[in-house]
Amino acid sequence: MGNHITIKDIAKALGISTSTVSRALSDAWDVKKETREQVLAMARKLNYHPNLNAKNLQNKRTGTVGIIIPEFVSSFFPKVIMGIQEELYAADYHIFITQSDESRAKELANMNLLREHMVEGIIISTTNEGGNEEAYRELIASGLPVVFFNRCPKTVAAPKVLIDDCRMAEMAVEHLINTGRTDIRHLLGPVNLEVSAMRAQGFVNALGKHGMESEGKMIPAGIFVQDGEVAVARMLAEGSKLPDALFCFNDPVAIGAMRALKAAGLRVPEDIAIVGFSEGSMATVVEPPLTTVLQPMQEMGRQAARLLLEQLTGNRRQSDRTVCLEATLNIRASSVSEKE
Q1: pLDDT digits (tens, 9 = 90+) for 35-72
Q2: Phi and psi of 99, rounded to 5°?
Q3: Distance from CA of residue 270 to its chain's centroid?
Q4: 199 near 231, Cβ under 8 Å?
Q5: For residue 75, what pLDDT band results from cuts at 50, 70 and 90?
Q6: Is the dihedral of CA 243, 249, 251, 255 positive or negative?
Q7: Could you give the residue ranges of the DSSP H alpha helices within the chain?
Q8: pTM (2 decimals)?
Q9: pLDDT digits (tens, 9 = 90+) for 160-178
Q10: Separation CA 71–CA 297 (nearest Å)
Q11: Phi/psi at 191 (nearest 5 deg)?
């Protein structure tokens, strides 16, 4: 037998009709006790599992929404999921969570998995590899509602929930300038992410506004703690003049940068000020506490769920609209010394 056992397989093994098997499995009153026991025994023997999705599709719904996130390493995505869950559970939907491990191939596999499980819609934050834009379009063209959040593909027409990353990055860098920092560098996020480009643009805008040069001031890094450590270790190994401030793509990179600086005997913020982005759970735990941009994570999740519910309830008038949420710059000791 193959892996997908159906009631036809049970019926064939027992030499009875599929309708009798179906009624026996449903505990119908008109099926003899002996027949029901034979059907149940054969179902166990063949490792049969009922297709719950098929039953639900008789009512044209499964009551399930799929979520695809790139990683569980940071606290950002779990907090967004809390907001999604809050809205969807209130609307009598359950969630099926998958994570792509920052892999384009795994993200595509997750999309296929969710389609196979017949979810009614998908909420996605993309991987840093990118490249699945055509697959997103195919999902949407098939009629499956899709909503993106935080990491949103620029070229795909779909509802999105995000913040103004460019403006918030500009604000964060201007904070460093206003505290007297004159040589600021940016530890870049992944090149395939639109959010990386927006934060880099904010960095350039802030320097330009104050007549400062941005060329040669952007350093490849990434998204994880070790990416920040490696980027700063490389900078230290070069032996060139160090900057007096770093604006980092996100909090993990900022924390990695702080670790590398401390290992080299440098002080934060006295020698080099540090600013992160996204307000992770470690921002107030590290020493010194990290200046960072607080994104409204749970509200982002709630808004993404609401956009999906709009589509699921048939309201597609604004199905490709973007919701831009307010964020906040939380200033802490990593960027402001006691004398400042």
Answers
A1: 988 999 998 888 887 655 555 545 556 899 999 999 98
A2: -130, 145
A3: 34
A4: no
A5: confident
A6: negative
A7: 7-14, 18-25, 33-45, 52-57, 76-90, 104-116, 133-141, 165-178, 194-209, 225-238, 251-263, 297-312
A8: 0.79
A9: 999 999 999 999 999 999 9
A10: 15
A11: -65, -25
